[in-house]
Amino acid sequence: MKSVCNIAVELLKSRGAHRSAAARRVGAEMCKELKTKVLRLLPPTSNGPTVNQEGQTDGAEILRCTVKALKEGHVVAVPTDTIYGLACLAQNSEAIRKTYNIKGRNGHKPLAICVGEVQDIYKYCKVKVKKELLGDLLPGPVTLVFERSETLNTDLNPFTSLVGVRIPDHAFMRRLCQMCGEPLALTSANISSYTSTVKVHEFQELWPNLAVVVDGGPIGDQSRAGSTVVDLSQFGKYNIIRPGCALSSTVDVLERKYGLSEDSGK
Questions:
Q1: How many domains does the chain have?
Q2: 8 A C-beta contact, residue 187 and residue 74
Q3: For residue 203, what pLDDT is reported?
């Protein structure tokens, strides 16, 4: 899509003095390789499905387009319950590499996985807490860290035995994971070390790298906090790796309802 490439190149030129080298490479490397589809996700109306500006029917058609792109090994941008994210199939090693390259992300920083249902977590993680705890926190704006299972792609975060898992409280994202039938690798839609994004135009310089950009509109309260990341890999303990959305309510559930204690040794 020529217009998307032009937008990205113009943005890169205007922001070049303030962006990293990785950001400046984005437009030049990918414009000629992908035709980015920007699809606006609109709520259904009482008169039937809403049609977006690209002519795609809301919901089902956008899901099919996004699933197709993911299955073909591409990276896509998606809305979540906290910020916009970049997603690819977690079991696809080449797609994971693309995601790191698009962000200019340090290869020793992990990617989380995203699944559609609580029961899916048990396939990819070794869970040491009650299932009821998972149900109390998920879907929601938290990332729960567990020991990874042997089923998960060994090329995803090969430097650690742990993996963070999300179930966003976002109907499109949950359905996307369900339709893919496997976990998504998920990270924020921005150049590494730059601020998180809550509107699609805030990461336009990345569009030429992406097969699909799903525009879900402005996200939430626009706090840009991201999910609260909690390590639950040790029996009876928790550790807040990164404070974010719903921090106080998450800690309250862990301590008061399930009696977990904070791991002061970390």
A1: 1
A2: no
A3: 97
